[in-house]
Specification:
Layout lengths: L1 H19 L1 H31 L5 E8 L2 H10 L6 H7 L4 E7 L2 H12 L5 E7 L12 E10 L4 E12 H14 L7 H38 L1
Parallel strand pairs: 2-5
Antiparallel strand pairs: 1-2, 3-4, 4-5
Helix pairs in contact: 6-7
Length: 225
């Protein structure tokens, strides 16, 4: 218990020291600016869709900059010293944007359009929709680099962009809450139930997309006539 208290005190001191360090403050500012750049690009694409296709593929855009304590914990887990340089070199998710889409098809279309822009560099892609995690988690993750233009320089910043459908986000949000519940008696049963729910939600996503295709076909025939 004493060791845990000492570790907690040390962690708090590290967090407070980071918050006061100018290089760290600047890094957080750069990440917030990178998030704004990505959000703007996504909102422009959504606006264009609303005119050209008469619908909005994006339901919600959520963003966050990782908290100092989470940054410290992640660096330590990976065996790195807590420095701003290590944050820049070894962490790719300090800046995060989550895009909630209406349909699975919209996820891939938006990701394709975003990556086709000439100032975006793809660093890494993880497709957990086509290849779900064992627990059932589904989402498309992109690590991208985007330039931000400051008063005296241009900097390339990394941002993690996650694309999910409404159903995927619903499942992930509840799974995240349940994962941190303590004193669960049957963890395997809970895990199996969550995996089953993820599979059901995926089937619903596919059916909703099929319904949209059916409606699109009816509208096309009506326009021709």
């Amino acid at each position: 218990m004493e060791n845990q208290n000492q570790e907690l005190v040390l962690m708090v001191e590290q967090v407070e020291a980071l918050k006061q360090a100018k290089p760290f403050v600047e890094l957080m500012m750069y990440n917030r600016c990178a998030i704004r750049e990505i959000e703007t690009k996504l909102r422009v694409l959504d606006e264009e869709f609303s005119i050209r296709a008469d619908r909005n593929p994006i339901q919600t855009i959520k963003s966050r900059v990782k908290k100092p304590i989470s940054i410290i914990e992640k660096l330590q887990r990976r065996g790195y010293e807590v420095t701003v340089q290590n944050m820049q070199e070894h962490l790719t998710d300090i800046a995060g944007v989550r895009v909630i889409c209406s349909f699975i098809e919209d996820i891939y279309k938006l990701a394709e359009l975003l990556l086709s822009q000439d100032d975006i560099i793809l660093v890494e892609i993880k497709d957990y929709i086509k290849n779900p995690k064992p627990n059932g988690y589904r989402s498309l993750h992109l690590i991208i680099e985007i330039p931000i233009f400051l008063s005296h320089e241009k900097k390339h910043m990394r941002v993690e962009v996650q694309f999910r459908t409404i159903a995927m986000d619903f499942w992930a949000s509840l799974e995240h809450q349940l994962k941190y519940k303590k004193k669960i008696e049957n963890p395997e049963k809970i895990a199996n139930e969550l995996k089953y729910c993820a599979d059901v939600i995926t089937e619903v996503d596919m059916r909703m997309q099929d319904i949209r295709y059916m409606i699109d076909e009816v509208e096309k025939k009506h326009d021709k006539s």
